[in-house]
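Incident log, support desk, overnight shift.

02:14 A customer reports that sequence design results differ from what the structure should imply. Their input is reproduced verbatim below. On-call engineer (initials T.W.) acknowledged and began investigating.
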């Protein structure tokens, strides 16, 4: 369980940082307050994604297991 929690926080941190940076740079451009806008967007995205990872992530994993017949073979 500790690994799942740590993984969710780390994955959320990395993915929200990359996505928010990309979208702010595309939609707003590198303006004077770019870093400020990016960090604000990153923080908001991170706050949103952590509960999503915990609550929806388990259902997604169950669905993927169902799609692949319930066995853990690659």
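02:41 Re-run completed on a clean worker. Output:
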């Amino acid at each position: 369980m500790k690994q799942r929690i740590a993984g969710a926080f780390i994955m959320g941190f990395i993915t929200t940082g990359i996505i928010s940076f990309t979208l702010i740079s595309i939609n707003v451009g590198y303006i004077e307050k770019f870093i400020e806008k990016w960090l604000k967007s990153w923080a908001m995205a991170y706050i949103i994604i952590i509960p999503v990872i915990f609550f929806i992530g388990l259902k997604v994993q169950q669905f993927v297991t169902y799609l692949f017949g319930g066995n853990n073979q690659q």
